[in-house]
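Quick one, tokens below. Sequence please?
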């Protein structure tokens, strides 16, 4: 079962601080936007959604091909298979997972209020909440 909202905000801040402290960099199949979001889902639910995917691809293109082979057109559809989809970003809460499009591909981030915390090539960053095209609740 999910956390109450105040715990989610506090725990999300701790999760983001931990990532910054470790200086985590994007690495396909080890720590990319899917693993970043799944790490947060594991904190919220105790479920590890990464076991099937860890160390299975060496590039984002290879990862997208594996998703398609597994029957998921993109990361949002993979998230929908494991999480509850929320009707639009206006209904979102802190700690929900956001799917957005970046350079023609779906990426995942974590909602932190009016922004989405995202993993970029430079590290953690944020984008406006309005970028969310689908939202999921852990």
């Amino acid at each position: 079962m999910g956390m109450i909202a105040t715990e989610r905000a506090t725990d999300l801040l701790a999760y983001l601080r931990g990532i910054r402290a470790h200086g985590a960099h994007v690495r396909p199949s080890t720590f990319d936007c899917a693993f970043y979001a799944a790490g947060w889902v594991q904190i919220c639910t105790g479920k590890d959604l990464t076991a099937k995917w860890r160390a299975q691809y060496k590039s984002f293109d290879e990862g997208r091909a594996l998703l398609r082979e597994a029957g998921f057109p993109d990361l949002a559809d993979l998230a929908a298979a494991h999480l509850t989809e929320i009707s639009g970003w206006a209904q979102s809460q802190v700690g929900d997972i956001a799917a957005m499009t970046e350079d023609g591909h779906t990426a995942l981030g974590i909602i932190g209020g009016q922004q989405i915390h995202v993993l970029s090539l430079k590290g953690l960053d944020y984008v406006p909440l309005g970028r969310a095209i689908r939202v999921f609740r852990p």
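The mean pLDDT is 91. The first strand starts at residue 84 and ends at 86.
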